[in-house]
Specification:
By secondary structure, this protein is an alpha+beta fold. The protein has one domain (4-150): Aminopeptidase (3-Layer(aba) Sandwich). Helices cover 28% and strands 31% of the residues. The chain is built from 3 helices and 7 strands; from the N terminus they run E-H-E-E-E-H-E-H-E-E. The protein has helices at 15-32, 89-103, 118-126; strands at residues 4-7, 51-57, 60-69, 74-82, 108-114, 130-132, 144-150. A 7-stranded mixed sheet has the order 1-2-3-4-5-7-6, sandwiched between helices. The protein is globular and about 40 Å long. The termini are far apart.
Length: 152
């Protein structure tokens, strides 16, 4: 499978991104009862020091993810999703996001997922993310689990 990862400068206006996000929302509703769309507007990824990536195979979008700034030193990964499971797409998107975050001079990456989302929790732990206290809008939300990784 030949995979190309590309940046999408205006994801809220990109048909392929919108399709992937609709599929992500459906998947998250199945897992946790919520789509997660309230905490991440696609326009957030068009601001300075933000990035949204999609993976494409045979001209079809198959995975996505992005980050947005939380502070000058911290970015937050949002909307990670892959149509194809267990073939390394998530790792490729995550690795590309981590490299880009370093180029943007971020020191840390934060993210949140739901405790019920076992696959995501295992994925981030496997990729050396550490569980941290819930931050921002996730403070006090028992269903949420937050992670951090220092960028080196």
């Amino acid at each position: 499978m030949d995979i190309t990862i590309k940046a999408i400068p205006r994801p809220s206006q990109d048909k392929n991104v919108i399709d992937l996000i609709c599929r992500l929302n459906t998947s998250l509703i199945t897992i946790s009862g919520e789509s997660g769309s309230k905490s991440a507007n696609l326009d957030d990824f068009s601001q300075e020091k933000a990035l949204f990536l999609i993976a494409v195979s045979d001209e079809k979008p198959i995975a996505c993810g992005g980050f947005r700034p939380l502070s000058p030193e911290i970015c937050e990964i949002k909307r990670m999703f892959s149509l194809e499971k267990n073939i390394g797409l998530g790792g490729k998107i995550l690795s590309a996001l981590e490299k880009a975050a370093k180029q943007f001079d971020y020191k840390y990456i934060y993210l949140e997922t739901r405790k019920k989302n076992d696959n995501a929790v295992k994925f981030y732990l496997k990729n050396e993310y550490k569980v941290i206290e819930n931050y921002g809008i996730y403070i006090g939300r028992e269903e949420a689990i937050c992670f951090s990784k220092e960028i080196k």
